[in-house]
Specification:
By secondary structure, the protein is an alpha+beta fold. The protein is 32% helix and 11% strand. The protein is built from five helices and six strands; from the N terminus they run αββαββββααα. The protein has a four-stranded antiparallel beta sheet. The chain has a two-stranded antiparallel sheet with strand order 5-6.
Length: 260
Protein backbone atom coordinates (compact mmCIF):
# COMPACT_ATOMS: atom_id res chain seq x y z
CA UNK A 1 0.00 0.00 0.00
CA UNK A 2 1.33 3.43 -0.96
CA UNK A 3 0.43 6.92 0.21
CA UNK A 4 -0.65 9.76 -2.16
CA UNK A 5 3.04 10.64 -2.75
CA UNK A 6 3.80 7.14 -3.94
CA UNK A 7 5.72 6.07 -0.85
CA UNK A 8 4.99 2.75 0.79
CA UNK A 9 3.22 3.03 4.18
CA UNK A 10 4.53 1.18 7.21
CA UNK A 11 3.12 -2.32 7.55
CA UNK A 12 1.42 -1.53 10.89
CA UNK A 13 -0.58 1.24 9.14
CA UNK A 14 -1.79 -0.97 6.30
CA UNK A 15 -5.21 -2.61 6.43
CA UNK A 16 -5.01 -5.90 8.30
CA UNK A 17 -2.02 -4.77 10.36
CA UNK A 18 -3.65 -1.99 12.36
CA UNK A 19 -3.36 -4.10 15.50
CA UNK A 20 0.42 -3.53 15.37
CA UNK A 21 -0.19 0.18 15.77
CA UNK A 22 -1.85 -0.38 19.11
CA UNK A 23 1.34 -2.07 20.30
CA UNK A 24 3.89 0.29 18.78
CA UNK A 25 2.33 3.62 19.80
CA UNK A 26 2.40 3.02 23.59
CA UNK A 27 6.03 1.97 23.33
CA UNK A 28 6.92 5.16 21.48
CA UNK A 29 5.09 7.27 24.07
CA UNK A 30 6.89 5.51 26.93
CA UNK A 31 10.26 6.11 25.29
CA UNK A 32 9.44 9.81 24.87
CA UNK A 33 8.48 10.20 28.52
CA UNK A 34 11.69 8.51 29.63
CA UNK A 35 13.79 10.69 27.41
CA UNK A 36 12.17 13.86 28.81
CA UNK A 37 12.70 12.65 32.37
CA UNK A 38 16.36 12.07 31.65
CA UNK A 39 16.73 15.72 30.59
CA UNK A 40 15.31 17.04 33.93
CA UNK A 41 16.21 16.36 37.55
CA UNK A 42 18.68 13.47 37.79
CA UNK A 43 17.54 12.70 41.36
CA UNK A 44 20.86 13.51 43.00
CA UNK A 45 23.39 16.32 43.03
CA UNK A 46 22.84 19.93 41.95
CA UNK A 47 20.94 21.07 38.87
CA UNK A 48 21.18 24.10 36.61
CA UNK A 49 19.38 27.11 38.05
CA UNK A 50 17.05 29.33 36.05
CA UNK A 51 18.79 32.53 37.00
CA UNK A 52 16.75 35.68 37.55
CA UNK A 53 13.60 33.54 37.72
CA UNK A 54 13.94 31.20 40.72
CA UNK A 55 13.45 32.76 44.16
CA UNK A 56 15.20 32.01 47.43
CA UNK A 57 13.32 29.58 49.66
CA UNK A 58 13.92 31.75 52.74
CA UNK A 59 14.09 35.44 51.82
CA UNK A 60 12.14 35.15 48.51
CA UNK A 61 14.68 37.19 46.57
CA UNK A 62 15.47 36.24 42.98
CA UNK A 63 18.67 34.26 42.44
CA UNK A 64 20.96 36.49 40.40
CA UNK A 65 24.41 36.16 42.00
CA UNK A 66 25.84 33.10 40.27
CA UNK A 67 28.91 33.04 42.53
CA UNK A 68 27.20 32.91 45.95
CA UNK A 69 24.04 30.81 45.51
CA UNK A 70 23.18 27.48 47.10
CA UNK A 71 20.72 24.62 46.75
CA UNK A 72 19.60 21.86 49.08
CA UNK A 73 18.28 18.47 48.02
CA UNK A 74 16.08 16.69 50.53
CA UNK A 75 14.85 13.11 50.32
CA UNK A 76 11.38 11.93 51.27
CA UNK A 77 10.37 8.63 52.82
CA UNK A 78 9.57 7.15 49.41
CA UNK A 79 13.09 7.90 48.18
CA UNK A 80 12.11 10.80 45.94
CA UNK A 81 13.90 14.11 46.37
CA UNK A 82 13.08 17.78 45.99
CA UNK A 83 15.32 20.79 45.50
CA UNK A 84 15.28 24.15 47.26
CA UNK A 85 17.25 27.15 46.05
CA UNK A 86 18.88 30.01 47.98
CA UNK A 87 20.59 33.25 46.99
CA UNK A 88 23.13 33.01 49.85
CA UNK A 89 24.72 30.16 51.78
CA UNK A 90 23.55 31.93 54.96
CA UNK A 91 19.91 31.56 53.94
CA UNK A 92 20.49 27.88 53.13
CA UNK A 93 22.09 27.08 56.50
CA UNK A 94 19.46 28.87 58.60
CA UNK A 95 16.56 27.46 56.58
CA UNK A 96 17.89 23.91 56.92
CA UNK A 97 18.27 24.25 60.69
CA UNK A 98 14.58 25.14 60.94
CA UNK A 99 13.42 21.91 59.25
CA UNK A 100 12.45 18.79 61.23
CA UNK A 101 14.60 16.55 59.03
CA UNK A 102 17.74 18.71 59.32
CA UNK A 103 19.74 15.74 60.69
CA UNK A 104 18.91 13.46 57.75
CA UNK A 105 22.28 12.21 56.42
CA UNK A 106 20.84 11.97 52.91
CA UNK A 107 20.36 15.76 52.68
CA UNK A 108 22.71 17.36 50.16
CA UNK A 109 23.91 20.98 50.30
CA UNK A 110 25.57 22.58 47.31
CA UNK A 111 27.10 26.03 46.92
CA UNK A 112 28.68 27.84 44.00
CA UNK A 113 32.41 28.53 43.91
CA UNK A 114 32.80 32.31 44.22
CA UNK A 115 35.57 32.28 41.58
CA UNK A 116 33.88 30.49 38.68
CA UNK A 117 30.29 29.63 39.69
CA UNK A 118 30.69 25.85 39.64
CA UNK A 119 28.68 23.80 42.15
CA UNK A 120 30.67 22.25 45.01
CA UNK A 121 29.74 20.33 48.16
CA UNK A 122 28.95 22.88 50.86
CA UNK A 123 30.03 20.61 53.72
CA UNK A 124 33.54 20.13 52.36
CA UNK A 125 33.98 23.64 50.95
CA UNK A 126 36.19 26.35 52.44
CA UNK A 127 34.70 29.79 53.05
CA UNK A 128 36.47 33.12 52.78
CA UNK A 129 34.88 35.93 54.83
CA UNK A 130 34.67 39.52 53.67
CA UNK A 131 32.85 38.91 50.39
CA UNK A 132 29.95 40.99 49.08
CA UNK A 133 27.12 38.45 49.04
CA UNK A 134 23.42 39.04 48.30
CA UNK A 135 22.28 38.80 51.95
CA UNK A 136 25.52 40.18 53.44
CA UNK A 137 26.61 36.99 55.20
CA UNK A 138 29.92 37.65 53.46
CA UNK A 139 31.11 34.10 52.74
CA UNK A 140 32.63 33.01 49.44
CA UNK A 141 32.96 29.24 49.00
CA UNK A 142 35.78 27.48 47.21
CA UNK A 143 36.96 23.89 46.95
CA UNK A 144 40.61 24.47 47.99
CA UNK A 145 41.76 25.55 51.47
CA UNK A 146 43.20 29.03 51.88
CA UNK A 147 44.51 31.35 54.56
CA UNK A 148 41.74 32.71 56.81
CA UNK A 149 39.28 30.26 55.24
CA UNK A 150 36.57 28.72 57.44
CA UNK A 151 35.32 25.16 57.36
CA UNK A 152 31.60 24.44 57.29
CA UNK A 153 31.21 24.42 61.09
CA UNK A 154 33.03 27.73 61.50
CA UNK A 155 31.09 29.20 58.56
CA UNK A 156 27.83 28.17 60.22
CA UNK A 157 28.87 29.95 63.43
CA UNK A 158 29.80 33.05 61.42
CA UNK A 159 26.38 33.01 59.73
CA UNK A 160 24.53 33.03 63.05
CA UNK A 161 26.71 35.84 64.38
CA UNK A 162 25.75 37.96 61.38
CA UNK A 163 22.11 36.96 61.78
CA UNK A 164 22.06 38.00 65.45
CA UNK A 165 23.79 41.30 64.71
CA UNK A 166 21.78 42.48 61.73
CA UNK A 167 18.83 40.34 60.68
CA UNK A 168 17.23 39.13 63.93
CA UNK A 169 14.54 41.87 64.13
CA UNK A 170 13.53 41.13 60.52
CA UNK A 171 13.49 37.37 60.32
CA UNK A 172 12.87 36.58 64.01
CA UNK A 173 10.82 39.37 65.62
CA UNK A 174 10.31 37.34 68.80
CA UNK A 175 14.03 37.44 69.59
CA UNK A 176 13.73 41.04 70.84
CA UNK A 177 10.57 41.11 72.95
CA UNK A 178 9.07 44.56 73.57
CA UNK A 179 8.36 45.67 77.12
CA UNK A 180 5.02 44.40 78.41
CA UNK A 181 2.11 46.70 79.09
CA UNK A 182 2.19 45.98 82.83
CA UNK A 183 5.88 46.85 83.04
CA UNK A 184 5.31 50.11 81.19
CA UNK A 185 2.36 50.98 83.44
CA UNK A 186 4.38 50.22 86.57
CA UNK A 187 7.26 52.37 85.36
CA UNK A 188 4.87 55.23 84.58
CA UNK A 189 3.22 54.96 88.02
CA UNK A 190 6.62 54.97 89.69
CA UNK A 191 7.67 58.08 87.80
CA UNK A 192 4.45 59.87 88.75
CA UNK A 193 4.80 58.90 92.40
CA UNK A 194 8.41 60.08 92.48
CA UNK A 195 7.45 63.38 90.88
CA UNK A 196 4.63 63.92 93.41
CA UNK A 197 6.98 63.17 96.30
CA UNK A 198 9.55 65.64 95.02
CA UNK A 199 7.01 68.46 94.70
CA UNK A 200 5.27 67.96 98.08
CA UNK A 201 8.14 66.84 100.35
CA UNK A 202 8.74 69.17 103.38
CA UNK A 203 12.05 70.97 103.73
CA UNK A 204 14.45 70.89 106.69
CA UNK A 205 12.36 73.39 108.71
CA UNK A 206 9.27 71.24 108.42
CA UNK A 207 7.44 73.59 106.05
CA UNK A 208 5.96 72.09 102.99
CA UNK A 209 7.54 73.13 99.71
CA UNK A 210 5.57 75.64 97.71
CA UNK A 211 3.98 74.38 94.49
CA UNK A 212 5.53 75.29 91.19
CA UNK A 213 4.47 78.65 89.77
CA UNK A 214 3.30 78.54 86.20
CA UNK A 215 4.75 81.93 85.30
CA UNK A 216 7.98 81.58 87.24
CA UNK A 217 9.88 83.53 84.63
CA UNK A 218 8.04 86.72 85.68
CA UNK A 219 9.80 86.58 89.08
CA UNK A 220 13.31 85.99 87.74
CA UNK A 221 15.16 88.81 85.96
CA UNK A 222 16.32 88.21 82.42
CA UNK A 223 19.86 86.98 82.17
CA UNK A 224 21.97 83.93 81.51
CA UNK A 225 19.75 81.76 83.69
CA UNK A 226 16.48 83.13 82.29
CA UNK A 227 16.72 84.43 78.72
CA UNK A 228 13.00 85.31 78.68
CA UNK A 229 12.35 88.88 79.97
CA UNK A 230 9.71 89.35 82.71
CA UNK A 231 6.20 90.00 81.57
CA UNK A 232 4.82 93.55 81.86
CA UNK A 233 1.84 94.06 84.21
CA UNK A 234 -1.55 94.27 82.58
CA UNK A 235 -2.80 97.84 82.02
CA UNK A 236 -5.54 99.09 84.37
CA UNK A 237 -9.01 99.64 82.91
CA UNK A 238 -9.97 102.46 85.33
CA UNK A 239 -8.52 105.94 84.96
CA UNK A 240 -6.67 107.27 88.04
CA UNK A 241 -8.36 110.06 90.04
CA UNK A 242 -6.22 113.20 90.32
CA UNK A 243 -6.78 116.43 92.25
CA UNK A 244 -9.08 117.16 95.17
CA UNK A 245 -12.54 115.74 95.36
CA UNK A 246 -15.40 117.91 94.11
CA UNK A 247 -18.35 118.80 96.31
CA UNK A 248 -20.57 116.47 94.34
CA UNK A 249 -18.21 113.61 95.01
CA UNK A 250 -18.02 114.45 98.73
CA UNK A 251 -21.82 114.70 98.93
CA UNK A 252 -22.16 111.34 97.19
CA UNK A 253 -19.78 109.63 99.58
CA UNK A 254 -21.49 111.19 102.61
CA UNK A 255 -24.86 110.07 101.36
CA UNK A 256 -23.62 106.57 100.84
CA UNK A 257 -22.09 106.55 104.29
CA UNK A 258 -25.33 107.72 105.88
CA UNK A 259 -27.35 105.15 103.98
CA UNK A 260 -25.14 102.34 105.22
Amino acid sequence: MTNPRGRRCPRWLQPGFRWLGWLVMPLLLAMGVLSLAGCGDPGTGPVDVKWDRVTCERCRMVLSARDYSAQIRIFKADGKSTLHFFDDIGCAVIWLDEQPWREDPRTQIWVTDWRNGTWIDARTAHYLPGKETPMQYGLGAQSEPAARALDFAAARKHIYEVEARFNTPIFNPGAIAPASTSDSAAATSGDLAQGTANTSAPDATGAEAAPAVANADARVPAGAGNPIPPRAPAPSTSAPVTGPATPDQDHRHQHLHITE
